[in-house]
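Sample pair:
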Amino acid sequence: MEKVELEENMSENKEGKKKEGDVKAKKKQLGGVRTMPFILGNELCDRFAAAGFHANMITYLTQVLNLPLVKASNTISNFSGTSSFTPLIGALIADSFAGRFWTIIGGSVIYVLGMVTITVSATLPQLRPPPCPTQENCVEASNQQLWVLYAALLLTSLGTGGIRPCVVTFAADQIDMSRAKTESRSWNFFNWYYFCMGVASLLALTVVVYIQDNVSWSWGLGIPTIAMALSLVAFILGAPLYNRIKPGGSPFVRVVQVVVAAVRKRKAVAPDDPAALYENRCLDADISINGRLIHSDQFKCLDRAAIVSESDMKEPLNQPNLWRIATVHRVEELKTIIRLLPIWASAILLMASSSNLSSFTIKQAQSMDRQLSPSFQIPPASMSIFSTLTILTSLPLYERLFVPLARRFTHNPMGITCLQRMGIGFFISIFATIASALVEIRRKNVAKDHDLLDRPTAVIPISVFWLVPQYVLHGLAGVFMTVGHLEFYDQSPESMRSTAAALYWIAIAMGDYVSTLMVTLVHKYTGERRNWLPDRNLNRGRLENYYWLVTGVQVLNLIYYVICAWFYKHKPINEMIDEDDENVESGKPLLDDRKEVELVRN
């Protein structure tokens, strides 16, 4: 009996190896760097459209729709949060049945519809209230006018859900992301992905914002709409070149199956030798193309799901009942996700602190001296350009100077680990909010000296460039934290990478919702006199106190992150290396036709 089971298991593993080889051979014929213009072009236009509208949205809501500052700020945070939450839905659709290619197309179509709606709402006079240049006793937008806006924002949020979790992972599908290849490259894919996003933001913060402030909102929103439509056409034209990885089925169903199987066998005794646990390469072939996860010693209670018993197989084909037994690879998928969650959660409060750049900081800039020449002044929303410029200049310096220097001390091919990179980003962001508080104190002191505290629309004689340090620090924090977070997705199970990428956007969503909660509570409980966040006159508020509160929260968050990173264990994986790949350390090709190398990602 044991001999028969052993032969069946060997046969399944041989079939699995053959299936893996066929998939890898097909993958080599498609994809490559030649697909990047089509894929990243779609993401560039998404970021161009999002940055062009979101960066200046506080101006549109307060000066065009005449909403109070706190209501406008919360609208921005809620919209941004929804846009960052829908990627989880898109990721599940992509990983379960649709695939990343079709999910991106569907999301792009919905996004274009939302941009068309928002452009129409800015063009037709009946969809906005009467102008209010004094910002006193203004008529707010009616419910009907706001519902048109909300419908447009909802469509763009849903469209974003199909684009954001899939583009970066779909682009990564086109190139070899194995450890051997990534360590031998002189460039980092995620660095250059983030660099391209910075270029899109730079164009939006200069060209689009200038058009919105000086020409019209119709053209300022129409240009990103046209760009997004063209990028969709370009993405479809590149379809014959793409390497499309077949969806491996719903990742959440597999997770639930492991939990159910472990609960059913909660009284079973796990074998001393992990090799006795159930493995089936043929079954796992579609979800382990680049390598199989191997057994780890954490969360041993889940190992019970892989204990083999006679009732685990379905007759007459003797197929495994996945609600009773799970392979080691599937058990380790769940373990990997559990390990990721504490690190992922640490990004929430960081995102909550940086969300103020699109609301309160822009209102500060509106009250400061933005004149560069007698005929030109910087649009308030364009101040974010300094964060973008910091990113664009820091990423090449990071890759060409910082990584080689760090490599000498750490002997890590990447310079520092993604966890260390994220930690540095958390640390820098604390100083960004400290700078925000100090600048606000300075701004109000100048307003007091010139008797301008009760004139909310007056220009305070203090240069807007006082805001530059906080923008630079936020940009520098993004170079470390955001890119490190994108790199960290490599720790996710191969078949759940769209879902793992969506977790980054979920962190942003929850950060925006936390920001909304903080702003609402602070506005509600700091009194009517000297309210920290007043509705109309920021000069009479205490915005600096809010920044000190955020700074304290970030310090606590950094301590939490350091503890989580200290105890984090990287996923163990048997990575598949083809005969054409070279051994990075020795510079010689592998002798075997295909060889499994046990790697523990450090």
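The radius of gyration is 26 Å.
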